[in-house]
């Protein structure tokens, strides 16, 4: 589970920013919080709210970047490629600082990095000592005058193998390089971090839904065909959404190849409807934008719920009625559906959802007159009570982070 995410000099955030997903053990909570091995509680939900262009998506970009850096930076880029990170405007040559705290069922880790597009300045992996509670360094990397310097205070991994990999791929993280070795210590770190599914990339929201809906539906159908145990869950959620759907089927169609024109057998989703005593099937491509959006979201969520991890979703409300969002939040809040306590971090413009969240689960983002973004938890705003109407107070401007169209 993710516990804390810190960063500075990243996109529109110039100063230090903390996304804290923890709260005290005595804080009154419900099933949308999970007990932590650290003796506190971690939320499984975090909603990020604020005006357009305030920096909400940039906050999520940090997690998407770390997911790439920790897992894909060795395999998915060439040695000469620039590292895909953006510092605050005018400070791009200075390193961005990112820190991530996360826990498995038995250990808590901390990862820290100072990085710019041209190099990784410093990188550190730490683990909390169970007796002292202090973090101890497992693995440290820095850029020396003659190249990369790696060290470990105690025996953690094979440094010789890691050095050789990073010599060939200096723009990769030591965690991503370690995963290439297949060694168990790096697999353990990867498992503790958990699966991360996101629709955010360096440019912002990566919206396959609007870019190429047909390809996205094919991908979903292929996934459900390969993982049939998820199909019934998706079908049940679509039916509960009261969309007039009574079933979901995956059929194989002969679809022409985009390059050769030759027909290729391709799985594609169809939904079952009833009308006046008759049953008929309709291609998912013919359904409403909201139905297709919900279908694609469910495909992203269910693997995370099954395996554990976090779904990082920008503009979760796109094409969805506000009443459907609580149905999605319930997937993560229900311990029976979410036994591994997967987390959902999302941005949203449907501010009525504020009243379905606890103040520890609400993150507000605003941008000042100098185009600098700031993020803060509602729980950290002085005077906010648990019984307050967050929706009404937010609309009244009492918490900040609201649009001001009269000033435009």
CATH class of the largest domain equals Alpha Beta
CATH topology of the largest domain: Rossmann fold
Q: Averaged pLDDT, please?
A: 91
Shape field: globular
The tally of structural domains comes to: 2
Beta strand count? 21
- Strand percentage lies at 25-35%
Q: Tell me the radius of gyration.
A: 23 Å
The SS-based structural class is: alpha+beta
- How much helicity do the residues have? 25-40%
- The residue ranges in which pLDDT falls below 50 over 5 or more consecutive positions are none
Q: Main sheet?
A: 7 strands, antiparallel
The neighbouring-strand order within the major sheet is 2-1-7-8-9-10-11
Tell me the CATH architecture of the largest domain. 3-Layer(aba) Sandwich
Taking the alpha carbons of the first and last residues, their distance comes to 41 Å
Helices, by number, come to 10
Brief account:
With 408 residues, the protein is of the alpha+beta class. It contains ten helices and 21 strands. It has helices at 56-71, 159-168, 174-181, 184-193, 208-211, 213-226, 228-240, 289-307, 325-333, 390-395; strands at 2-8, 17-20, 22-23, 33-35, 41-43, 45-50, 96-103, 108-115, 120-128, 135-144, 147-151, 195-198, 200-201, 204-205, 247-256, 263-275, 278-283, 309-313, 343-347, 362-367, 373-377.
Main attributes?
about 400 residues, Rossmann fold, 2 domains, seven-stranded antiparallel sheet, six-stranded mixed sheet, 10 helices, 21 strands, about 25% helix
Produce the secondary structure layout:
Blueprint: E1 2-8, E2 17-20, E3 22-23, E4 33-35, E5 41-43, E6 45-50, H1 56-71, E7 96-103, E8 108-115, E9 120-128, E10 135-144, E11 147-151, H2 159-168, H3 174-181, H4 184-193, E12 195-198, E13 200-201, E14 204-205, H5 208-211, H6 213-226, H7 228-240, E15 247-256, E16 263-275, E17 278-283, H8 289-307, E18 309-313, H9 325-333, E19 343-347, E20 362-367, E21 373-377, H10 390-395
Parallel strand pairs: 6-19, 6-20, 12-18, 18-19
Antiparallel strand pairs: 1-2, 1-7, 3-5, 4-5, 7-8, 8-9, 9-10, 10-11, 13-14, 15-16, 16-17, 20-21
Helix pairs in contact: 2-3, 3-4, 6-7, 6-8, 7-8
